[in-house]
Amino acid sequence: MNLYEYQARALLAESGIPVPRGEVARTVREARAIAERIGGLLVIKAQVHAGGRGKAGGVKLAHTADEAAAHATNILRLTIKGLPVNQVLVSSAVDIAPEYYVSILIDRTTKAPMIMASSAGGMDIEDVAATAPGKIVKVGLSADRPMTKTEAAAVAARLGFRGSAASQATDIFRKMETVFWASDASLVEVNPLVLTPTGTLWAVDAKISLDDTALFRHDALAQLRDESAEDPREVAARHADLSFVGLQGAIGCCVNGAGLAMATMDLVKYFGGEPANFLDIGGSSNPTKVVNAMRILTSDPDVRAVLINIFGGITRCDDVARGILTALDEIQIKLPIVIRLTGTREAEAKELLKQEGRGRLIWASTM
Fold first, then answer.
1. So which residues are the catalytic ones?
2. pLDDT score at 131
3. Helices (H), strands (E): how many in the chain?
């Protein structure tokens, strides 16, 4: 689950990390009122779960409340990378000298958190890695204890911080790690971390991604989710207790078990197809899950066929078959449906589909 910039900045501010003053507005009138309250040089920033806002016209400077309102009017009309802009952050602008990048994230090689930082802030870290890898500092962190002051100071020194700026950076790095653990995050990123000409550090822009599987421990954070900005298929799957990830292919996959789901997608790719999704109905034998899965798959206009691949262990094949037949009755499905069911109550499932499938199904005996 991704947080909007204004939400991420609020979490950082709660931990004592300095962020510029700002408020979110959903209308031009609200943007004008906020600009009048804050005053001075302002920045108006589109709030969407997408990068490249500046290039798309979603970040503008304003010297007056009237100018802020004019920018808000234009930004609220934008669509950035397919996402409509429904809100803007009206914030104090910061006088920028050097810019830095810093994040706490999961290092999938070591399966542990790490701090990644660079003196080339303000750029996409992927671009820095490609063009100037020597400017990236990576230091592994411990899951058993927080980063020490000495460890954080060493990172600050490698980025070139000195004196008071080094002390501020050290403090910010440690507080970012606190936010990372306290919110069960997978990413806490500040880009850019700005050093002003007066020697003060500010977290000007922030991104936080939370681990969905830990949200049950964070009711307040879970309330920050904006489902209107998410793939509607993934929203529907979450409410139906299905594991789903949308892809760009034409073959909808309905499988039980994450391992089999991955293997099924691999096979589709191996034989020249493109999976439209990862969808794991889990070990439940509830036919309703199959119905919900079929609704989600067939709602995708790019899906041209459905592949159902079930290995019945805890999952009963006959219950899956009943779910398929219910889906056929309740949903107008005109797509070819290829089914492979094997395992628990396989014979009963085949008999059900043979008697009631009405010729709309294609049976496969093996993967």
1. 101, 189
2. 80
3. 12, 18
